[in-house]
Amino acid sequence: MSARSLAKSERRKSSPVTETNKQMSFEAALGELEKLVQELERGQLDLDDAISAYERGTALKELCRQKLADAQMRVEKLSVNAAGEPRVEPFDPSR
Would you tell me the crossing angle of helices 47-75 and 3-13 to the nearest 10 degrees? Predict the structure, then answer.
């Protein structure tokens, strides 16, 4: 099996993000997304493979977005100042 055929076979197996894929680290998901973008930009994929790569990329982008949002929630908290106005401040686990 050629490298290109193997890559196509692997791409077809890699579906949009599933429960198992949610265990991917942000870095792993971003790395895979960057590779997919490079493949798409080269323009050498057939239509079905390009669509599959696009779908996978969209799912990986969403996974990265969610992981960043989760990280932000862990480092910021919403509080109210003396005037009763909401404000966001860094999370301090010692308080």
Answer: 50
Q: Please write the tens of the pLDDT for every residue from 45-92.
A: 999 999 999 999 999 999 999 999 888 877 777 777 788 888 777 766
Full-model pTM:
0.63
Distance CA 53, CA 15 (A): 9
Closest CA to 60 of 49, 78, 77, 68: 68
In residues, how long is the chain? 95
CB atoms inside a 10 Å sphere around CB 63: 21
Radius of gyration of the chain (CA): 19
H helix intervals, 1-95? 3-13, 26-42, 47-75
Rounded CA separation 32/35 (Å): 5
